[in-house]
Amino acid sequence: MESIFKLSAAEKHALTSLPMQVSDIKADQDIVREGDRPSRCCVALEGFTCTYKMTRAGKRQIMAFHIPGDIPDLQSLHLTYLDSSVGTLTACKVGFVQHEHLVDAGRRYPALATAFWRATLIDAAIFREWVVNIGSREAYARLAHLLCETVTRMKALGLVEDDSCDLPITQVELGDAMGMSTVHVNRTVQAFRRDKLITLDRGKLRILDWDALAEAGEFDPKYLHLRDRVAA
Amino acid sequence: MESIFKLSAAEKHALTSLPMQVSDIKADQDIVREGDRPSRCCVALEGFTCTYKMTRAGKRQIMAFHIPGDIPDLQSLHLTYLDSSVGTLTACKVGFVQHEHLVDAGRRYPALATAFWRATLIDAAIFREWVVNIGSREAYARLAHLLCETVTRMKALGLVEDDSCDLPITQVELGDAMGMSTVHVNRTVQAFRRDKLITLDRGKLRILDWDALAEAGEFDPKYLHLRDRVAA
DNA sequence: CGCCTATTTGATCTGATTCAAACAATGTGG
DNA sequence: CCACATTGTTTGAATCAGATCAAATAGGCG
Fold first, then answer.
1. Is the pLDDT of residue B166 over 70?
2. Nucleotide D25 C1' to residue B65 CA (A)
3. Protein side of the strand C interface (CB < 7 A)
4. Of A16, A143, A151, B76, which has fewest CB within 10 angstroms of its CB?
């Protein structure tokens, strides 16, 4: 799962043999909640999850979408207090690994500790880019950027075929992630269709014109630091 | 400088005796640039710095303000490619420490490695909160939140006295950080003055009504994870 | 004094929100 | 297999928060 990093066979083995409790979770359920002090991390195995916070006004701000292989709350390893919630967007399969096992694996295999650290650093790089995206790009570019990022990350996991993939994220959720209203998300999606950039129908996304989409969203994947990773 | 973490005397000594090259940098200069592959980290010693990216449209998005003690590009330790720039807002004193020394110190004192990791995790937590702030709060609340965050962080370093502190950040820069226009920053600052929340004059900020400001910005400092830290 | 940078003001415009309602797809139970 | 509830998408109209443009004002400083 984490073989997106250059790891030795022994390290990979240590990783995959970590004791993990797997469970199935329905859509729209919290996996962990803001305020928790978890003693384990969750690993997204199947389905889509997101990290979010609620504001007092009742708005949900999604800060990250997670795809299989991600560890949404890896930071809880060293930050005991959870400052945001992680919930499912679709039905999911999730694995739980006790902190002690992760810490122990990191102690025995320093490369693993580095890999974990780097994973959290890449998460931070993505948050930075979201600040840029939300803070300084208008709707059309903002959505284009988000789609490019998500597709690029899925591509790295082999989840994209023929420029199309599953994207079971509703327009409400896209709006919550980009800080814009559902209505405006919908109008922007329609603009994309009009401009022949994408098709999007019942959770199936197809990129019709990647270059134009990346151009519209000023998307440059360097911040994802995929070049540091080595497919296994 | 980093004694905001619970470290033993030996660890603190290892930290403070790291070979560091100190230099003075004028205001509005880049310290490191997006695209660099630095072999050292920079430590803010005096003055204010920020992390930012430029968009194609020429807008600057500031993603973080740094105060003395911060290591703005600590992530470069494990992400070779720098995905954003760090620049000075005021004249600054900055220290440079070679990566190898940091890595070496982390190897010899695992608690230091953990402390570094935790520092980057807290940075990430702050980015998450910025996404929430920019994505879901309107101007008045957004500025209130930013001021609360900045003052709280400065307070932790003893840089606040009698509810007032230096805040040599221009309204243009505040706007670049919050994704809003200078004009609107100005009007919001005036609203704060009208509401007797703050005074702000030539880089001097005074909080007149902390509770009201925190209330306006829905500010809850837990995400700063200061409770994990122990003043030394 | 004159220059430069930062703040302030007024007027106008617009991207995006809100509200409200219709519509489409999917699933559920009788 | 159909009626009906549910969830997600789409549409139109009215409104607004905040952007933009342009110009004035105010400090700080060589």
1. yes
2. 29
3. A 138-140, 142, 175, 179-184, 187, 202; B 170-172, 182-183, 186-187, 189-190
4. A16
